[in-house]
Amino acid sequence: MSVLVALLFAQLAASAPADEYKLVNPRAIELFERDQRLMQWALAKYDGNRDGYLSIFEADKAAGEFKQIADGDRDGHVTPAEYRSAWGFIVARWGDQVASARSR
Question: How far is CA 1 from the centre of its chain?
Fold first, then answer.
């Protein structure tokens, strides 16, 4: 019986959609909840359904892009200096989008 159950679970796992999105950082929303400017940037770029809120999936994608922008030396870690630099870049580059997202 346990072999049958194991085979059933293996079949279910194999039939899962390949394009199913897996969260990289389930706590990514916390980054944006702490910083209103970053939240506005994330909403402007990643609020796919335009409901004015970031879902956990939208926040995860936004946090991934923020990390790519911030990790200047590509070592996989974001230092406080890299964070400040990325924050300044986002505010300068996407300031108009942030302002228009705030008015929605």
Answer: 42
- Whole-model pTM? 0.68
**CA-to-CA distance for 46 and 50, rounded, in angstroms?**
9
39 Cβ neighbours under 8 A, 6+ residues apart: 32, 33, 54
Q: Which of 98, 104, 103, 99 is nearest to 41 (CA)?
A: 98
Cα angle 27-30-52, degrees, rounded to a multiple of 5: 105
Rounded Cα distance between 101 and 29, Å, is 17
Query: Digits of tens for pLDDT over the chain (104 positions)?
Result: 444 434 444 444 444 444 567 888 888 999 999 998 999 999 999 999 999 999 999 999 999 999 999 999 999 999 999 999 999 999 898 776 555 544 54
Q: Which pair of structure tokens corresponds to residue 45?
A: 């770029």
42's enclosing H/E stretch is: helix 36-46
